[in-house]
Specification:
- 51% of the residues lie in helices and 6% in strands.
- The chain has 510 residues and is of the alpha/beta class.
- The strands form two sheets. A six-stranded mixed beta sheet has the order 3-2-1-4-6-5, with helices on both faces. A two-stranded antiparallel sheet has the order 7-8.
- Strand 2, helix 3 and strand 3 form a beta-alpha-beta unit.
- It is globular and about 80 Å long.
Length: 510
């Protein structure tokens, strides 16, 4: 296959491939020996993090065993909504790393990090009703990725005093990435080559050994020896990228106008920060055996963040009504829409379990722990005493939802709320108000002291006393107008003494 030169300068051009790699491995070895601190390598399963891990592994092997005193932690953050094929690939790599590191006596161990239950994607989307992530409300990244990693790194620093964080960041990834890396380097300076103080976590340093590499440099390195130190064929990784690229192209066999495989992005299959999940779409189009993922793609596309306003409550998640240009800023998804999201997700899960190939390990799209957390949010935080989750689960899966003994015979449940809904008719606000009062009364009925009951009931009333969205907007506008009038009066009162003094001074001068 012909290699197309895009005009980018290879990092291997000055010293040649072998000498450049040897020099870089030597730099890593010296850094490892000079810093009495553990290492943390961020591994996503992609080409850049694989290259960095392979370089560090090579450096470790070059160091005498008695000098390998610092632990190397390989961390991989599983958001629990990763592309299932990618997640399976990463899990397989982590297992092989642990096995091979043990065999070679290397101080390296892997860690699969996951978000806290209350931070999981489904608990926030389906449970709390957070609208699907969008540019102005990107609630997912910190909860699913940043927080688990930072928690692990912070614990390592607390235990050892400091740490080195090795990442596969490259300036050639994008102009934004290059600008960010350059700005941090200028602001914080360099400790030594490729090593910069961590701007967000004190007592840690960011090591970026391939920061000046181009896409083709990464692939040249990975394919030069073909096999990773943990016994994986890197040509499989290349095929992985090719399978997730629409035109099945690779970075060393491309035309000038064709996107590089290196530009492929693997991530959460539910991601709504991009208009289309091109990597999953390409996987399905390029491999008939991956058609079992098609329902995942369709479920993700159903979010339609540009036209979901009517699917969301006109109140914020805490019940407040806020206006923007005299219109209510819509908050969480309505109950019916959250129930629909859950029902369709469980249907997708059933399809995947029935149709995925045998070589794909069993996995849950949504776990029982997440379902229990969602049920608790619906019942406790949203006063949805209908307790519809077990019923939906039974309808879709045919299995009973695992309930605690205390939850089996509630005083008020789906049947009672169905009667209440019939009585209230189309008056949704009235139904929610009465249901909320019932929920709070039930919650406090077994308490010896009910000092917070009246406050809880008042909160329910303040959230549901509107007739509809138009009524809520009018009330907020009137309230804001009253505040402005009061402020104007107060301003006049405060200014009155100065006005009189000015009038007196003017009269004296005349």
């Amino acid at each position: 296959m012909q290699i197309i030169n895009k005009g980018s300068k290879s990092v291997f051009e000055r010293l040649g491939y072998r000498q450049t790699i040897d020099q870089l491995v030597s730099t890593i070895s010296e850094l490892y020996l000079s810093f009495d601190a553990p290492w943390i390598i961020g591994y996503s399963g992609g080409k850049d993090s694989t290259a960095v891990l392979q370089l560090v592994w090579m450096a470790l092997e070059s160091i005498p065993s008695k000098s390998r005193k610092n632990k190397v932690h390989v961390i991989s953050t599983d958001t629990l909504v990763e592309n299932p094929v990618v997640a399976s690939w990463v899990s397989k790599q982590l297992r092989r790393m642990d096995e091979q590191a043990t065999l070679l006596g290397l101080p390296l161990e892997t860690h699969r990090l996951t978000p806290e239950l209350e931070d999981s994607f489904w608990v926030n989307l389906i449970g709390k009703g957070y609208p699907a992530p969008r540019p102005k409300f990107r609630w997912c990244t910190s909860r699913l990725k940043i927080n688990p990693s930072n928690k692990f790194i912070t614990e390592i620093i607390k235990k050892h005093g400091e740490a080195i964080l090795a990442l596969g960041m490259r300036k050639a990834e994008s102009s934004m990435r290059a600008m960010s890396m350059d700005n941090i380097e200028k602001r914080l300076g360099r400790v030594q080559e490729y090593l910069t103080p961590n701007a967000s976590l004190p007592n840690s340093y960011v090591f970026t050994p391939i920061e000046n590499w181009e896409n083709d440099d990464v692939w040249q390195f990975l394919l030069h020896s073909s096999q990773t130190p943990w016994d994986t064929d890197n040509s499989n990784l290349l095929d992985f990228y090719k399978g997730a690229t629409k035109d099945r192209e690779c970075p060393m066999a491309i035309t000038t106008g064709t996107p590089s495989c290196g530009d492929s992005r693997f991530g959460c299959w539910v991601c709504t920060m991009v208009s289309q999940d091109r990597s999953m779409l390409a996987m399905i189009q390029n491999d008939q055996e991956k058609e079992w993922m098609q329902p995942l793609l369709e479920y993700r596309d159903s979010f339609n963040i540009k036209e979901d306003r009517e699917r969301r409550d006109f109140r914020r998640i805490d019940g407040r009504v806020q206006l923007f240009k005299d219109r209510a800023i819509h908050g969480p998804y309505w109950q019916d829409d959250r129930e629909d999201l859950l029902r369709r997700l469980l249907q997708v899960q059933e399809h995947v379990k029935s149709n995925k190939p045998e070589d794909v390990p069993d996995f849950d799209i949504i776990t029982i722990k997440e379902l229990k957390a969602i049920r608790e949010v619906w019942r406790e935080d949203k006063d949805e005493v209908e307790d519809s989750l077990p019923r939906i689960y039974k309808e879709v899966t045919g299995n009973d939802f695992p309930l605690d003994a205390a939850d089996r015979n509630p005083a008020f449940g789906w049947h009672e709320m169905k009667i209440l809904k019939t009585i209230c008719g189309d008056d949704k606000m009235h139904y929610q108000l009465v249901r909320g009062l019932i929920s709070q009364s039930q919650r406090y009925r077994t308490m010896a002291r009910r000092s917070g009951l009246f406050d809880a009931l008042e909160q329910v009333i303040s959230k549901h006393f509107y007739e509809d969205e138009e009524d809520a907007e009018n009330r907020v506008r009137n309230y804001q107008e009253q505040k402005r009038n009061i402020k104007d009066r107060l301003d006049l009162i405060h200014c009155a003494p100065y006005v009189r003094r000015l009038e007196n001074d003017t009269n004296k001068n005349e």
